[in-house]
Amino acid sequence: MRILEKAPAKINLSLDVLHKRPDGYHEVKMVMTTIDLADRIEFRSLRENAIRIVSHNRFVPDDHRNLAYKAAQLLKNRFKIQQGVAISITKSIPVAAGLAGGSSDAAATLRGLNKLWRLGLSLDELAELGAEIGSDVSFCVYGGTAIATGRGEKIEQIDAPPHCWVVLAKPDIGVSTADVYKNLKLDHIEHPDVDGMVQAIKEKNYDKICQKLGNVLESVTMKMHPEVAVIKEQMNKFGADAVLMSGSGPTVYGLIQHESRLHRVYNGLRGFCDQVFAVRLLGERNVLD
Ligand SMILES: C[C@](O)(CO)[C@H](O)COP(=O)(O)OP(=O)(O)OC[C@H]1O[C@@H](n2ccc(N)nc2=O)[C@H](O)[C@@H]1O
Ligand SMILES: Nc1ncnc2c1ncn2[C@@H]1O[C@H](COP(=O)(O)OP(=O)(O)OP(=O)(O)O)[C@@H](O)[C@H]1O
User: Fold this and answer.
1) What residues are annotated to the active site?
2) How many angstroms separate the CA atoms of 265 and 262, rounded?
3) Any idea which UniProt keywords this protein has (predicted)?
4) Those residues with Cβ within 8 angstroms of residue 36's Cβ, 6 or more apart along the chain or in another chain
5) Is the CB of residue 217 less than 8 Å from the CB of residue 15?
6) pLDDT score of 161
7) Cα dihedral angle (57, 10, 187, 235), rounded to 10 degrees?
8) What global pTM score does this model have?
9) At what angle do helices 101-116 and 67-78 cross, to 10 degrees?
């Protein structure tokens, strides 16, 4: 039997860090939304009782370190599955980019194997399992648009932002999320207005969404990698309506309402960056059903 799943990337429209927790993680409050840039994952039953990963991407591990492997292992252990699976990952999402590529592959694996192994688990149950793999996995199980709290695993789904285009540019560096959180100075934070962002989305007010974009990790990553600031400046110069770094970076995205301007921003960025994408927001509920 063969199952196909789409594993889309996310961007953070607003990302605030409230405090450091006793378990070493940070308490966050964020608004995340899915974008139409996705890995494709195929699951096939294997005769042998093993998990095999194929990705043909030199930056992606093909063993127990792969987050899709971890998701499969978690389901196998929890539900005592005595079957094997081959997981073939076709990557389109850049790796270590702040776009939750690995987390989305893990989430797609939870959804895909729930079908392949007929486990009958709800999305809420899969999201709870996902939290054991990584903080972004629970959001990726649902996709759409959500407020994420806790260490990122508590998800409240909200309505989609109004339609717009997103140009993404990833400088040629990888960023470690752990390092960025480690370098964050909690007493020097300028907190973004997360509630204002939620309100702007509710009102479908595109201009207000642009005004409310904010990410406390942006200045931390910029200090470590000045390339991020350069890309942000270029994206503003070429005419994006609003520009922000996603997650822990280094990918920078620009929101653009009018298609005519989309080409100018995309082509302009291509001059600076190898990895540039122009996609739509995919923030509707049940986008992965
Ligand atoms: C930056 C974001 O991508 C925003 O969506 C997430 O907060 C990070 O999510 P993620 O990559 O799934 O993170 P995890 O794999 O759970 O954690 C990686 C590392 O980041 C740090 N981390 C992560 C999440 C969080 N709320 N506080 C943290 O301090 C921890 O040092 C952790 O060891
Ligand atoms: N399926 C996978 N796809 C990509 N990277 C993976 C995968 N599984 C494990 N990894 C490892 O995870 C690391 C982080 O990759 P990933 O693309 O998930 O980062 P990210 O986009 O910054 O995630 P986030 O936004 O959730 O912090 C990579 O360096 C890679 O070695």
Assistant:
1) 10, 136
2) 5
3) ATP-binding, Isoprene biosynthesis, Kinase, Nucleotide-binding, Transferase
4) 8, 279, 280, 281, 282
5) yes
6) 97
7) 90
8) 0.97
9) 30
Which of 95, 104, 105 to probe ligand 2 with, by most ligand atoms within 8 A of CB?
95
**In sequence order, which residues have a C-beta less than 8 Å from that of residue 10 and are 6 or more positions away?**
32, 33, 34, 35, 99, 100, 104, 136, 139, 140, 246, 247
- In single-letter form, the type of residue at position 220 comes to V
Tens of pLDDT, residues 180-230: 999 999 988 899 999 999 999 999 999 999 999 999 999 999 999 999 999
Question: Hey, what are 5's tokens?
Answer: 């799943």
- ipTM for the predicted complex comes to 0.97
Position 288 scores a pLDDT of: 80
Nearest CA to ligand 1 atom 20: 178
Domains delineated in the chain: 2-158 (3.30.230.10), 165-280 (3.30.70.890)
**Residue 260 CA to ligand 2 centre (angstroms):** 33
